[in-house]
Amino acid sequence: MTIKKGVSGWVADIQPGGRGGKRYRKTFNTQAEAKHWEAWLKTNVVQNPAWQPEKKDTRRMLELAKLWYDNHAKELRAGENTYSRVKLALEAMGNPIASQFKETTFTEYRAKRLEAGIALNTVNREHSYLRAMVNELIALKIWKGANPLEGIKQLKIQENELRYLQEDEIKRLLAQLARSSNRHALTVSKICLATGARWSEAEHLRNTQIMHGKVQFARTKTNKARAVPLAKDLVDEITGHERPDPRSPRLFEYCLGAFREAIEKASIELPKGQMTHVLRHTFASHFMINGGNIIVLQRILGHVNLTTTMRYAHLAPAHLEEAKRLNPLANLSLFS
């Protein structure tokens, strides 16, 4: 706070709220008037804090990201990985000051990412991570004001065809896996085909997860535990395996490479990004083709939202059968 003699009079340059607060500047004819105004201004700020605009947050986004991680994200299953992605994104944006982190900060960053050939899914995930981080900072009373990312819509992604294996392809794949030098690739694949499990869920199974003829999946992608019955011969195959390390509860060694090799040798072509996930799609597709219930399938797969499971509904034998019976061509007699 300063009062100085200027060309046109005494200039009071005051920032009563301190660094980051609103700055006031006014010129007076005399030094006494300037001091009187300074005292009046300070009194108003002290007696009525609402009169003084809230300080701008001068912290950098990476500092806030660290607070978010320490106070929340480190307890999440994928917290460390998410924090790493958030940091990379904020660094690419130039680590802006929090008060200057606006909608355009992210949308300009997103446009550059897309121009560089980054997938839509990736930039949508980055948007979700950052938006969730700011929402949590608001809940923790660390972030003041609205979330600048809340009003930004995610980019629409064209759904790819969900590839699933036909019976002859399943047989060819299992035959190749049976010839693999990896002891566990065949059993892990069978678990995925029999339960709709994700590859990582099956590959990381522990002996305590197989009980009473069921396999229980815990610490899943959706953080929801689920249990699925198994045929007795598959239970015997799982429990009969020699563990990679007798001191560890893990049942299987890493076997993704063996699975990739078996897919290639079985001459099975898959869309990009559906290597092991084809087993989960195959379970769900055959479940519906064989007359399964869509609600039951949702529970088995552990989907939070039924909309996700509905991708398989069209495979049900009676799906939209009414279209054949109720369309106008089927009832031309009504119009004659």
UniProtKB/TrEMBL annotation:
- The keyword DNA-binding is annotated on this UniProt entry: yes
Domain (Core-binding (CB)): residue spans on this chain: 59-138
Q: Which InterPro entries match?
A: CB, DNA_brk_join_enz, Int_N, Integrase-like_cat_sf, Integrase_catalytic, Integrase_recombinase_N, Tyrosine_recombinase_XerCD
Q: Would the keyword DNA-binding turn up in this protein's UniProt record?
A: yes
Q: Which PROSITE patterns match?
A: CB, TYR_RECOMBINASE
One matching Pfam family: Int_N
Can you supply a Gene Ontology BP term from the record?
Answer: DNA integration
Q: Which residues form the Tyr recombinase domain?
A: 160-325
Q: Which GO terms describe its molecular function?
A: DNA binding
Q: Identify the keywords attached in UniProt to this record, alphabetized.
A: DNA integration, DNA recombination, DNA-binding
Superkingdom to which the source organism belongs:
Bacteria
Name of the molecule in the record? Tyrosine-type recombinase/integrase
Q: Which species does the entry assign this protein to?
A: Castellaniella ginsengisoli
